[in-house]
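Ticket opened by: R.M.
Priority: normal
Category: complex prediction / small molecule

The reporter submitted a protein together with adenosine-5'-diphosphate and asked that the result be attached to this ticket for the collaborator who will pick it up next week. Submitted input follows.
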Amino acid sequence: MTSIADGTGVLAGEQRMLIDGELQLTAGGTLFDVIDPATELVAGQATDGTVDDMARAVGAARRAFDETDWSRDLDFRYHCLSQLHAALERNKEHLRRVLITEVGCPVKVTGSQIESPIDEVKHWAEHGKNFDYLADNGVHQTPLGPARRKIHYEAVGVVGAITPWNVPLYLNIAETVPALMAGNTVVLKPAQLTPWSGSEYGRIVAEETDIPPGVFNVVTSNANEVGAALSADPRVDMVTFTGSTATGRAILAAGAATVKKTLLELGGKSAHIVLDDADFGMALPMAALMACVMSGQSCILPSRILLPRSRYDEGIEIMKTMMENFPVGDPWDPANMQGPQISETQRQKVLGMVAEAVDSGARLVTGGGVPDKLPVGYYTQATLLADVHPDSRIAQDEVFGPVLAVIPYDTDDEAVAIANNSIYGLSGEVSGGDLDRAFAVATRMRTGNVTINGKSHFGIDSPFGGTKQSGLGYRNGAEGYKEYLTAKTIGMPE
Ligand code: ADP
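Result attached by the on-call engineer:
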C-alpha cells in the first residue's frame, strides 16, 4: 500500500497547459492547488489559464484547421493517433497515480478510467481509418434532368471540449479522440478539480506524438469563465460537454449566438425498476455496490430504486447489509472499493440533501453522515433512504453521492410512471425473472439506455446519449463518430 506519507503514492502532475504546440504556464504565472480528496492535502498545482489563454488556444486551433491539411490527411491522423495510443500505454501507471491522487478513485476500480479510455484511442483510430467518408446516394430526377448525389463526410471544424471531474481521463479522451480522428482541431478545458488528467494528456501529445501545433490544445483554469469563453467563442464550430444540466443549459445558450453544434451529456436521476419476480439476491447487492464504487459520482447511476410493495422490506434489508459492509477508505489500498467525495463542498451538498430528505419525510435506513473511522478525507457513509416520495427533491435532483432513494410501487404501470417522472432521461435499469416482461418495461422507460438484469448497455460500439434534459446527441458507436462530421451532399452530373 502506498500513501502520501511515504511519497510513493500521491503524485504531483503536470503544471503546464498546451497551447499551439507549446507546454506553458499562464503569463502571470498564477497556479492553483490540486487537493488530494483522500488526505485533504495539497498534492500540487496547475497553471491557472485565463480568458486570454483560451483565446490564444482557440486561435491556434482555428489556424491549424484552416491552414494545414490535418482535416484532409486521414493517413497522418491515423499515424498520430496510433502514436498517441502507444504513448498512453507507456504512461499508463503514471496516469493511474494521477487519477487516484486528484479524484480519490480506488486503485481497484481504475480499470474503466485508465485501460478503457486508452483502448478507445485504438478503437477510434481504426474506426476512423475504415469509415466511408464518401457515399454514393444515387441519381434522382430534377426539372433540369438527372443528377447524382454524393455525400461527403467532413470535419466540423474547431471543437471545444469541456469535461467534468468524476471520470476525467476517460472523458478527456472520449470527447477529443473521435473529434481528432474525424479531422477536427480541438481545445480541451478540463475541470478545475482535476486539471492533471488534462495537462498530462497535453504533455503526452506534445512530447510523444507528431500531432502538429494547434491541432490539440489544453487550457487548465480555476475559473468557470474560461470554459464559458470557449463555449461562446465565434471561432469554435462545435462544443462537446459532459457535466451538470445547469452548465449544459449555459453552454447551449452561449453557443446560440453563432448556432454552434452542441453535444451534451448531462445529469441523470436514473431509476432501477426491480420487478417482483427479480432475483433480489443478485440485483440488490449490485444496486448498492453501484452507488458506492465511484462514491456515487456517476451520471448513469440508478439512484432511485423502485421496489414492489410485496417484497419491499426484503429488498431494503439486502441493500442495507451491503452498504453497511462496503469497503470504504484509502483509495491506494486495493481492499477498498469506495473512496472519498471529490471535495468538501461536494460532500456537504450530499449530506445536506440527505438531511433535507429526512426532514421532508424519507426514512433513513443507514448512513447519512461521515464514517467514524475516516475523519480525514472527504468520505461519506453509504446512505439508504426508504419511503421516498417520487416528487420529493431527493427523488428528483441528482445527488452525486453514495445515496439510494427507495420508492415503493404496486404495478408495472405505476413503476414505469414513477421512473419517467423526471426531467432527466439518461439511463435506466430493470431486474426481473421473466425477460419478456422486463424487456417490455425497458422499452417504456424514456431514457437513452437501459440495463436489464445487470447486463450493461455501455460500450464503445453502442450509441450512448440522454433523452429529455440529460443531453443532446451521442457518444460511442457509429453515431458517436458521425457527431464530429458534417454530411455535405454534392449534386453532380451522372
Ligand atoms: P460541477 O458543478 O460539478 O463542477 P459542471 O457541470 O459545472 O460540474 O462543470 C463541468 C465543467 O464545466 C468544468 O470543466 C467546468 O469548468 C465547466 N464549466 C462550468 N461553468 C461553465 C460555463 N458557464 N460555461 C462553460 N463551461 C463551464
